[in-house]
């Protein structure tokens, strides 16, 4: 099917592609937000690897199409036939084997990296009538045993409010995490499905009402980040964000004692917007789920602490 | 000689024939007609209307996202807009458009006089307009349309205005169940037709790949759609009569809904995409004058994609309450899809290799769509890799990937199909210049719009948000402006199609010198498709070999 010239052309093209796609793969690191956890570095390595392979395939096939457009155009009225070749067993085996090998390689890499992430712990479905209660002791673990962690923080979510309970029973709307220590987050949702997501952490976990789910993460980069609700949760979905601080253990403990001695001052954008809606060009007046008032929210947390 | 390949048109005869087909019978398109060709056109024209409505909703969404603040539409309306945009585009545009195109083409391509069950066929179609109008009517309810996204995950879809039995979500479910019933009936019809109505000599391995892809897609409709229909009925019971299938505060489990939903809705992507791949397999050989390279592998790969796609649904739920072993299993199965799709992409490329390319409008759309599919496929493999998916799940990266598939691949393929079979369907030629204008006005803005979503997603911008952090504004403005241009690109298309249908020059039977049975009958085909049922003696994709070449005959005649 190919002439010698075409073989040389293909060889040169593949060599150029290898260099270019590797370069694009290196660029991929800069397309991501800063890496703020140990897990983020591994995810970015995987992404760079995927981008390299993807660029190679994409540029390879599109290159052939562009080559055909540039050099194999027929004159407008020329409807004579091209080549009669209906197939080539060797070529077809080659291009079945190629994606198979690539897929095995990609799956292997992804599996390895997933093993290193070691993030998720799932407990059996427990049907709690008050989901804010802690899981009963009989809730045995399924295949994913809880991962060991040096710090445990309870995360309670509801429309549209994040609250966190720290080891000394302090409750706050901010998430503070000590740097370089593995922290378990026990995630519990009250009403609908929400999602825990900090882009710099690369981790995301849906929080399902009625289930106990925890994830373990190790922040590695001090700073302030935004925690977002990643699963669509209704009217004020976009407003369900809060601050995340990654700081040294000293400052973290300092903050804990400080907060324990001060009155909680919850801020909730959804409540504010429900009372004072922003001016929009079109006002539908359609059904709106009313967010719980902050006062009620606090009371709940206090009940829960007892 | 079983069919007449001659290109000659004695003008008189042609126009008489044309009159017989089309003359003064526009009313038939608004009637309960059992001709598969009329039904096909009914489907295609109606779904195009829904495409325009869905597109307008998309432009409203993009207009809201021009600025970080929520300032164009209030939040409930925004939630209703993206819910309805997704629902309309999937369930009232791509899937039924494919059903219409398949309706028109499959009997012609396999040499049948009609579908197996013409009456059922008409019923399948006539369920859709009321279902679509019902869905749209929810815009006029005091509490508005469904607001829980096209996934309609409980418990959020069960949060309804207190005490109102008829609400947006209720109407959404009822319309989707109706559309589902229509699709299941259609699937039975297609399967039966392809199995039992083939002309003598039309063996399975002489069927065009388009027919293979319809067979595979409809097989998926039969196997998987009942899961969604069942889930929706349970959801309706939860919503309206207080059962607790999916309610976590009862004894229900919302994750079960996700499993049932994605058990259909992942294969649904292939129900939409396989016919698009089929279109590529028809158009690329015709305009490169080469046989489809590796026809047999492509046909088998088509069935392979359908088969594997039944076992991949959990990759939509990697961040749900999905345990590690399940994440890894479904990562592996999801990646397997890359093998048959890879075979197809290589086969398209090899078909074009060393060819005699004609870049008429259908070919532009087909090559553009195929190239964009490779991009969408690459990001698809990335999304199958669990650790990476956990980062970009529910972000604009997924939205970008998905639109590369559903718009840049499938809708481009649909446009390729409309231009390619337009002369056959209407008996007239479209205006080439307008077609090319339409292509460039679609191709460039579509790429800008949907490419921009990938960096947004990598940076962590979530889908379905009505306001966002100011850091995301740059790419959003680019995406929005390009999307308005993309919306405008339908105008030259409509002008061309409507104008050419009414006033275009008469088309010959086979303007592209294409192979395939549909090109052997007149344009438009007579009521029973063929003067006499053809006997098939040739391999599919009769290009490249002068011995088989249709052009030989017509050259002699000219």
Descriptive overview:
The complex is a heterodimer of chains A (306) and B (558). Chain A contains six helices and eleven strands. Chain A is an alpha+beta fold and 306 residues long. Helices cover 39% and strands 19% of the residues of chain A. Chain A starts with a helix and ends with a helix. Among the domains of chain A are: 70 residues, no CATH class; 114 residues, Sandwich (Immunoglobulin-like). The relative contact order of chain A is 0.12. Chain A is elongated, with a radius of gyration of 27 Å. In chain A, strand 2 and strand 3 form a beta hairpin. A six-stranded mixed sheet of chain A has the order 1-9-6-2-3-4, with helices on one face. In chain A, helix 1 runs antiparallel to helix 2 and helix 2 packs antiparallel against helix 3. Chain B starts with 10 loop residues before the first helix and ends with a helix. In chain B, helix 2 runs parallel beside helix 4. Chain B has one domain: Cytochrome C Oxidase, Chain A (Up-down Bundle), CATH 1.20.210. Chain B has 558 residues and is mostly helical. The N terminus and C terminus of chain B are likely disordered. At the A-B interface, helix 2, helix 3, strand 8 and strand 10 of A face helix 3, helix 7, helix 8, helix 9 and helix 10 of B.
């Amino acid at each position: 099917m190919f002439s010698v010239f075409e073989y040389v052309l293909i060889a040169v093209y593949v060599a150029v592609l290898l260099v270019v796609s590797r370069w694009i793969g290196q660029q991929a690191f800069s397309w991501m937000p800063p890496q703020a956890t140990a897990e983020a570095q591994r995810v970015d390595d995987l992404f760079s690897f995927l981008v390299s392979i993807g660029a190679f395939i994409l540029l390879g096939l599109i290159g052939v199409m562009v080559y055909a457009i540039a050099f194999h155009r027929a004159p407008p009225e020329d409807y004579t036939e091209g080549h009669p070749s209906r197939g080539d067993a060797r070529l077809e085996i080659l291009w079945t084997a190629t994606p198979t090998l690539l897929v095995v390689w990609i799956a292997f890499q992804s599996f390895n990296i997933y093993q290193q992430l070691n993030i998720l712990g799932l407990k059996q479905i427990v049907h709690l009538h008050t989901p804010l209660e802690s899981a009963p002791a009989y809730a045995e673990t399924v295949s994913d045993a809880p991962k060991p962690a040096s710090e445990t923080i309870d995360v309670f979510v509801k429309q549209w409010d994040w609250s966190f309970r720290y080891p000394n029973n302090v409750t706050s709307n901010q998430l503070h995490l000590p740097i370089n220590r593995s922290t378990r987050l026990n995630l519990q949702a009250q009403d609908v499905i929400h999602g825990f997501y900090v882009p710099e952490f690369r981790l995301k976990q849906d929080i399902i009402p009625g289930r106990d789910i925890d994830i373990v993460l190790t922040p590695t980069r001090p700073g302030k980040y935004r925690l977002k609700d990643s699963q669509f949760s209704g009217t004020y979905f976009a407003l369900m964000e809060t601050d995340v601080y990654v700081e040294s253990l000293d400052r973290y403990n300092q903050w804990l004692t400080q907060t324990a001695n001060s009155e909680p001052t919850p801020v909730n954008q959804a409540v504010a917007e429900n009372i004072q809606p922003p001016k929009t060009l079109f006002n539908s007046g359609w059904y709106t789920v009313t967010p719980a008032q902050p006062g009620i929210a606090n009371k709940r947390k206090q009940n829960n602490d007892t | 000689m079983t069919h007449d390949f001659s290109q000659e048109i004695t003008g008189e005869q042609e126009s008489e024939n044309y009159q017989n087909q089309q003359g003064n019978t526009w009313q038939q398109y608004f009637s309960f007609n059992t001709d598969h060709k009329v039904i096909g056109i009914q489907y295609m024209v109606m779904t195009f209307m829904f495409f325009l409505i869905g597109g307008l909703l998309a432009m409203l969404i993009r207009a809201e996202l021009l600025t970080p603040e929520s300032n164009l539409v209030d939040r409930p309306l925004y939630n209703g807009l993206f819910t309805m945009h997704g629902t309309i585009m999937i369930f009232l545009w791509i899937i039924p458009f494919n059903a219409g195109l398949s309706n028109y083409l499959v009997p012609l391509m396999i040499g049948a006089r009609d579908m197996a069950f013409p009456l059922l066929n008409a019923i399948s179609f006539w369920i859709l307009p009321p279902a679509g109008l019902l869905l749209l009517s929810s815009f006029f309810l005091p509490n508005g349309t469904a607001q829980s996204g096209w996934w309609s995950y409980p418990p959020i879809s069960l949060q309804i205005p207190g005490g109102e039995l008829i609400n947006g979500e209720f109407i959404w479910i009822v319309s989707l169940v109706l559309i589902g019933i229509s699709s299941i009936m259609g699937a039975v019809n297609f399967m039966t037709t392809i199995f039992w109505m083939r002309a003598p000599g039309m063996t399975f391995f002489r069927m065009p790949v388009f027919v293979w892809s319809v067979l595979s897609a409809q097989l998926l409709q039969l196997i998987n759609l009942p899961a969604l229909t069942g889930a929706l009925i349970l959801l309706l019971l939860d919503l309206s009569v207080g059962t607790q299938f999916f309610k976590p505060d009862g004894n229900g489990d919302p994750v079960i809904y996700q499993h049932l939903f994605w058990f259909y809705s992942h294969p649904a992507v292939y129900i939409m995409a396989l016919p698009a791949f089929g279109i590529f397999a028809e158009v690329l050989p015709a305009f490169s004058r080469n046989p489809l390279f590796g026809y047999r592998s492509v046909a088998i790969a088509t069935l392979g994609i359908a088969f594997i796609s039944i076992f991949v649904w959990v990759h939509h739920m990697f961040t749900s309450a999905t345990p590690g072993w399940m994440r890894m299993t479904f990562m592996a199965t999801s990646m397997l899809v890359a093998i048959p799709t890879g075979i197809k992409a290589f086969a398209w490329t090899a078909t074009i290799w060393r060819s005699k390319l004609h870049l008429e409008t259908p070919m532009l759309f087909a090559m553009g769509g195929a190239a964009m599919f490779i991009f969408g496929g690459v990001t698809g493999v990335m999304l199958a890799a669990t650790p990476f998916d956990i980062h970009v799940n529910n972000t604009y990266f997924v939205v970008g990937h998905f639109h590369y598939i559903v718009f840049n691949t499938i809708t481009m393929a649909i446009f390729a199909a409309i231009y390619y079979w337009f002369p056959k369907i209407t008996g007239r030629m479209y205006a080439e210049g307008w077609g090319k204008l339409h292509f460039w006005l679609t191709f460039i803005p579509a790429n800008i719009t949907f490419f921009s979503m990938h960096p947004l997603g990598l940076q962590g911008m979530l889908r379905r948000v009505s306001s966002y952090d100011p850091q995301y504004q740059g790419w959003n403005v680019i995406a929005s402006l390009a999307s308005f241009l993309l919306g405008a690109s339908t105008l030259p298309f409509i002008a061309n199609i409507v104008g050419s249908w009414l006033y275009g020059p008469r088309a010959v039977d086979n303007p592209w010198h294409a192979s395939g049975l549909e090109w052997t009958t007149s344009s438009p085909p007579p009521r029973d498709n063929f003067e006499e049922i053809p006997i098939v003696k040739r391999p599919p994709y009769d290009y490249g070999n002068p011995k088989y070449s249709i052009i030989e005959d017509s050259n002699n005649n000219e």
